[in-house]
Amino acid sequence: MRKRRRLLSRHDIRHIYWLAKNAAKQLLLGNVGEAKEAIYFIRVHLKYDSEIKKDVFGMRVYRMNECDCVCAKSEEEAKDFYMDAVGFTSEEVESDFLGEVSLQEGVYDLNDEGGLDWITFEELVTRNRIANPYIISSTDY
Fold first, then answer.
1. Which of 50, 66, 62, 140 is nearest to 105 (CA)?
2. Which of 7, 31, 52, 67 could form a disulfide with 26 if both were Cys (CB 3.0 to 4.6 A apart)?
3. Rounded to the nearest 5°, which phi and psi values hold at 85?
4. What is the pLDDT of residues 3-14, one digit of tens each?
């Protein structure tokens, strides 16, 4: 049986575009190592779902709506935590819920020089040793 390719979200496509642009820029500047790293992350985004790690320390990431992602052990735990943390009703959470997110997705994080670095959810969970439900990213459009 053939493996099905996962569909790329709008966020994935924007991130792949940014990585490709950054890789080209780094190559023009002569920074081959950084270009290779950007190309590696593009390859990670294009892998099959079955090849991508689903959890770290038993934690998974769920996109609650267009703005927020919650790290939790299960979908139900994520929804319950989010209702308590934000004050939404179960109907609001259910209607906005977008599903599980790959740990290879992530967010831009402010670095020491004032620039932005891409960090995956897997790195965030590992670095911060997240073991309880947590709003791992929040973006206001």
1. 62
2. 31
3. -70, -40
4. 444 455 666 677
